[in-house]
Each structure stands twice: as structure tokens, then as C-alpha cells.
Amino acid sequence: MSEHPGRTRKPRVAIVFGGRSSEHAISCVTAGSVLEAIDRTAYDVVPIGIAPDGRWVLESGDPDHLQIKGPDHLPKVDGDRASITLLREAGGTDLVVHEPAQPPETLGEVDVVFPLLHGPWGEDGTIQGMFEMAGVRYVGAGVLASAVGMDKAYAKIVLRAAGLPVLPSVTVTAREWYRDPDGVRYRVADLGFPLFVKPSRAGSSMGISKVHDASELDGAIEEAHRHDPKALVEQAAVGAREVECGVLEALDGTPETSVPAEIVVGGEHEFYDFAAKYLPEEHTELDVPADLPEATSAEVRELAVRAFEAIGCEGLARVDFFVMPDGSLVVNEINTMPGFTPTSMYPRMWAASGLDYPALVDRLIQLALRRSTGLR
């Protein structure tokens, strides 16, 4: 329950999802899963959607309409619903609904926000900064950790400075590519082929290309720049296994780790792309727990905590690794708001570690309710 003295009502949790990024649909799917799992006897739940144009609306709490029905039927927040605002008052922050030709309706004070947003304008510290300004508790990482985790290029700088192993890479801005494409090609050539080109600040495998030789480089950079003016060109981990590990704070703030899991991409997919992640008919296997030597599993968990602490994360994170052919580990990236879809690895890893989906959702809300607002 909320820590407010004398409070008898249930804590009010605002589930915020959708957003302006290219991961809008995945955010909706994540929200549908959380809305289905959250304990309505313990929490008063208010679903808030952010439409692709940025409008905040009071959304439906029906999880079914937030599911992917197929590659051409992705869920989307209905921007025509009643708009909703956060109104900061002396005693707290209220949720206020605005219907056309109707007086504003106050839903009451919000105790915690669960921002199930992926990508820019949600997972990158922007909305976290707004909650900090409003003095609202929220689930997950703060402003700096969210921003660093979202930007793969800067995350590599921070992780490398903390002594964690990362793959060699080159950052290419749209300005650099426009002004000096030959210079970019020269810098990238040192990485060798194959390599991967990806937007620096996107997820869900949006805009990622595997580049087999120099003839494919230009198109891959331009595709990444369609999603983000900053692209990351990264050396491929040839022959590596893809392994992930979940990090979750205990109620006393101590980071704990899940059993690691492995992604085995099948079919015609060369890497873990959007279809392999989210479309059920694709042939991707998620081995939970991963079949790893005990020493390697222990090292994965140790490095996951080090990565979590290196960026100053809070609440939760998923840390992705490559297990190289020689058995060494490389940190691929850290995700401060991992997906909660039915096929997502993060909840599956925790379920295999003894914490089921509803308990995981409850832990995250309780962590947010216990933490202070302001500088920590």
C-alpha cells in the first residue's frame, strides 16, 4: 500500500503506454499484458494512452484490443478518446479527464506511474523528467540512466569506462553521413565485415540491418537514419550465442538477477529482428534457463549487476550479452524498460527464477511506491 499516513484507499496506479516512437505498438502490447496481470484488488488502475501525435487520453483497460493481430494489424492508442492531464496541486498530483462540452472530471491523486513506453519520448528520460518535475513516483530508471540506456552509443562509453567488455563500433550522425560519406566508409572499414547498423536510440529491432559487405553499407546507414539521426555501426559477434539476464531490485534496493536465458533464432532470420521477436508463427526459441556452464552463468549475472550499477539504474533492467565462441562474454546493451509482452524474455526469466508475472508487476509497483521523489 501507499506510504501516505492514514491512507485507507488503494494506491492509484497510472499505466502509461503508446507514445510517439516507432515502438508505439509494442508499448501497447506490453501494457495489455500488465493490465491483465495487475491485481485490481490491491490497486486502482487508470490506463493512459499516448497517441502517436502526443495526445494523452483515457484509454480502455481491455487487454484484448492491445494485442498484435498480425503484421498489418498492430495496436494503436485511440487519440479521439477523452484527454487526460496530470494536474499538480499542493497536496499531490491529480489525474483530470477532459471530455468535450463537459466540465473537467478529477479521478483523484495518482500515487505511482508505470510508464510502459519503449523508445524515444518515453524510455529515454524525457517522460521521467516530467514525472520528476511533477513530484510523481514512477516505475523504473531515472532520467540519466534512462537516457544512457536508450542511447546505445553512450551506453557503450559508460560500460567501457566501468571496465565492461563491449564490441567495437563507430557512431555515424546524419550530418556526418551527408557531409562526408567517404570518410564514414573509411572509418567503418576498420570494423570489418559482417557488421550491424542500427539506430542508436531505438529498440524492438527497428531499423537494424546486417551488412555482409561494403555494397550493403550505404542502404543500411540510411535505413537506420530513418529512425534516428544517430546510427551505430557495430562489429558483428560472429558465431556468438545471444544471452540475456534480468536485473530487479529487492525491496531494500539490492539488485538481484534472474537465471540467464538464450535466444535461438530459427527459420530464415539472420538475427533477432522484429518478426522473430513478436510474431508467433516465427521460429524463434527462447531457452529459459540457458544451457550454459555454471561459471559462465555466474559471470553473466555478475556482469549484469555491474552494468545495472554502472548507468545508475533503478527498479529493473534487462542486460543482453554475446557469449563468444571462446566462451568470453561481451555486453551487447542494457534495456531499462524491457518488454512485458507474452513472448518477452524478461518476465519469462523471472518466472523461471521463482517470481511469476503478477508478482513481478507487484514488486515493481511496490519499489516505486517506496522510493522518494526528487534527488536520490
Q: SSE layout and pairings?
A:
Blueprint (H helix, E strand, L loop, with lengths): L11 E7 L5 H14 L6 E7 L5 E3 L24 E7 L2 E7 L6 E5 L2 E5 L9 H9 L2 E2 L4 H8 L1 H10 L7 E5 H6 L1 H9 L5 E5 L9 E3 L5 H11 L2 E6 L5 E9 L5 E3 L3 E5 L8 H5 L5 E4 L6 H17 L5 E8 L5 E7 L9 H8 L4 H14 L6
Parallel strand pairs: 1-2, 1-7, 7-8
Antiparallel strand pairs: 2-3, 4-5, 5-6, 9-12, 10-11, 10-12, 13-14, 13-15, 13-17, 15-16, 17-18
Could you explain how this protein is built, in words?
It is a single chain. With 376 residues, the protein is of the alpha+beta class. Helix content is 30%, strand content 26%. It is built from eleven helices and 18 strands. The protein has helices at 24-37, 126-134, 143-150, 152-161, 174-179, 181-189, 217-227, 274-278, 294-310, 345-352, 357-370, and strands spanning 12-18, 44-50, 56-58, 83-89, 92-98, 105-109, 112-116, 137-138, 169-173, 195-199, 209-211, 230-235, 241-249, 255-257, 261-265, 284-287, 316-323, 329-335. Strands 13, 14, 15, 16, 17 and 18 form a six-stranded antiparallel sheet that branches. A hairpin with a 5-residue loop joins strand 13 (241-249) and strand 14. The longest helix is centred in the last third of the chain and has 17 residues, at 294-310. The radius of gyration is 21 Å and the shape is globular. The protein starts with 11 loop residues before the first strand and ends in a 6-residue tail after the last helix.
